[in-house]
Amino acid sequence: MTTLTLVRGDITRQSVDAIVNAANSSLLGGGGVDGAIHRRGGPAILAECRALRAARYGRGLPTGQAVATTAGDLDARWVIHTVGPVYRGADSDPSLLASCYRESLRVADELGARTVAFPAISTGVYGWPLEDAARIALEAVRQADTAVGEVRFVLFDDRAYAAFAERIG
Ligand code: AR6
Q1: Is 37 in the pocket of ligand 1 (CB under 6 A)?
Q2: Is this model's pTM higher than 0.90 or not?
Q3: I need a surface site. Which of 4, 79, 116, 128 has the fewest CB within 10 A?
């Protein structure tokens, strides 16, 4: 049984086994959650991301996939980096966003992580409408076949929290 919980706050302040990062394909950092994770997690995370780029992802991590690194100075064992899709209006493919959650949980299972914190992937710079993104995220996690015991959505502001709270049931 996976329990879904909602928290309003900063994902870099969570104590969990794995923190999911809404990264970009480069894996080399950016703004939003990505910037916050690298800032607070310190240089060890970026060092592992660079090594991953060199070894396995020369062309970058594809959208919808996930890969783990150390969590550096964060209060977690791992950061799982995933790349959300950029919202392109009604043509946007929700399965790529769902894939971020599913693949992150698959990586979490491989690692043996039991508690996993997710941000609202793609709802910032990548522009996915919050209400739709919340529906896709909750559905993807509910349908996932995972040994993770707690999936914690960490929502940065009241609007994001409300979008998830209204749909979690
Ligand atoms: N804790 C939790 N949620 C946060 C935090 C935080 N510290 N900071 C922001 N959010 P975004 P994306 C929320 O833009 O849309 C980066 O530059 C934010 O309010 O971080 O997937 C990457 O490098 C929003 O609801 O991620 C990529 O280039 C949500 O997290 C690109 O942005 C996601 O916003 C990815 O864009």
Answers
A1: no
A2: yes
A3: 4
Q: So what's the architecture of 3-168 in CATH?
A: 3-Layer(aba) Sandwich (3.40)
Return the active site residues: 34
User: Domain segments of the chain: what residues?
Assistant: 3-168
pLDDT single digits (tens) 24-65: 999 999 999 999 999 999 999 999 999 999 999 999 999 999
CA distance 45 to 28: 9
Give the distance (Å) from ligand 1 centre to CA of residue 156: 9
Distance 64 CA to ligand 1 centre (A): 15
| Structure tokens, 12 | 């870099």
Atom 14 of ligand 1, nearest CA residue: 124
